[in-house]
Amino acid sequence: MKGTTKLLNPGPVTLTDRVRKAFDAEDVCHREQEFADLVKRVMGKLARVYPESDSAYVPVLLTGSGTAAVEAMLGSLTPRDGKTLVVSNGVYGERAAAILEAQGKAFTMLKSASWLDGIDLAGAEAALAAGGYTHVFTVHHETTTGRLNEVGKLGALCKKHGVPMLLDAVSSFAGEDLRFADWNLEACAATANKCLHGVPGVAFALVKKDVFSSRKSAATSVYLDLFKYEKEQRTGFSPFTQATHVMVALDEALSELADMGGVPARVERYRGYSQRVLSGLAKLGVETLIPRADYSSTLTSYRLPEGVTYERLHDDLKRDGFVIYAGQGDFRGSIFRIAVMGDLAPSDIDRLLGCIGQSFDRARRV
Ligand SMILES: *Cc1c(COP(=O)(O)O)cnc(C)c1O
């Protein structure tokens, strides 16, 4: 039966039956009116995921993974003669710096002392006070550790110094609270296949509308130019072939999100599941990577106990029908991560905890 493997990685997610059925849709040409109507519908729903964004921001959809949306956002919006302050404490902050580097755009990397730390707010304050920045970039939920960054505090600094913020919200959009005006957000980037519970293949940036009427594109790429997409998507069409079936599934996933109570209900559900994982693993003596209070609602990270290798744990759990996630970069081989997005029930979490306990017991017996 499909959907019996539970994906506990931070996207792609285990699809709900409703989204899976929608994906198995009639074939449609991306140049036909019915597809344009679908795109317009998806744009309307995306703008309303956070009611606050509805009037002042426009979703721009493109075919690609989350990184494509981040790359398009940075490329199209950061001026060629500008300078971005990249506030980083993990893999995705570093990826943004690599993107700006590849685009030949100027930036300053403000790294925390360690990926275990929060973003460097004092450093950001000093940099912004010194001046010279046209944008600030940060990651909302740093999936590397599961930390929900203090974007509210950084946003207040952006506001104070009049510098717009660009946000990687790829693993938080629809799974955490987002503030647009308070955070001085010019744009955020996200994807269909994380907290929105869609299929991978479509990503988007939600961009302040006045950007498109007041500036020219700064894109260094033909494909990843948000200005081109925005202009054509006013009629629902796109400059390049969109992932048509993925768009149908996203439309359904957005309806499902609204039917289930929208973002507040989804955040509460994720939070409940993550708490259940946290307490269950605490009982098994597992240590968290960062303090409990610092985690996002969607993902938690744990140090592998003495005598347990990631490979063993992963392979045992995979046989039991669960896919967990390894550490990246510095944390490879020393941690494991559990995301709670997608089609999951409380009983899945309880079974997972039982299976993890059994895997630990087996590891300790040898
Ligand atoms: C998943 C993720 C991305 C994008 O990854 P893709 O593999 O390109 O979809 C970007 N930023 C964050 C914070 C993520 O979690």
List keywords for this structure.
binds pyridoxal-5'-phosphate, 2 domains, Aspartate Aminotransferase, domain 2, Aspartate Aminotransferase, domain 1, alpha/beta, 42% helix, 7-stranded mixed β-sheet, 366 residues, 12 helices, globular, 14 strands, 3-stranded antiparallel β-sheet
Summarize it.
The chain has 366 residues and is α/β, with parallel strands linked by helices.
Question: Could you explain how this protein is built, in words?
Answer:
The chain has 366 residues and is α/β, with parallel strands linked by helices. The protein folds into 2 domains: 6-12 and 262-365, Aspartate Aminotransferase, domain 1 (Alpha-Beta Complex); 17-259, Type I PLP-dependent aspartate aminotransferase-like (Major domain) (Aspartate Aminotransferase, domain 2). The chain is 42% helix and 17% strand. Helix 3 packs across helix 4 (91-103). Pyridoxal-5'-phosphate is lined by residues 10-11, 65-67, 70, 92, 139, 143, 168, 170-171, 191.
In the CATH hierarchy, the architecture of the largest domain is: 3-Layer(aba) Sandwich
- What is the straight-line distance between the termini? 34 Å
Q: Assign an overall shape.
A: globular
CATH class of the largest domain: Alpha Beta
Bound molecules: pyridoxal-5'-phosphate
**Strand content range:** 15-25%
Strand order of the largest sheet: 2-10-9-8-5-3-4
Number of strands: 14
Give the structural class.
alpha/beta
In CATH terms, what is the fold-level topology of the largest domain? Aspartate Aminotransferase, domain 2
Return the domain count: 2
Regions with pLDDT < 50 over 5+ consecutive residues?
Answer: none
Share in helix? 40-55%
CATH superfamily of the largest domain: Type I PLP-dependent aspartate aminotransferase-like (Major domain)
Query: What integer value in Å does the Rg equal?
Result: 21 Å
Q: What is the succession of H and E elements?
A: EHHEHEHEHEEEHEEEHHHHEHEEEH
Main sheet record: 7 strands, mixed
Mean pLDDT: 97
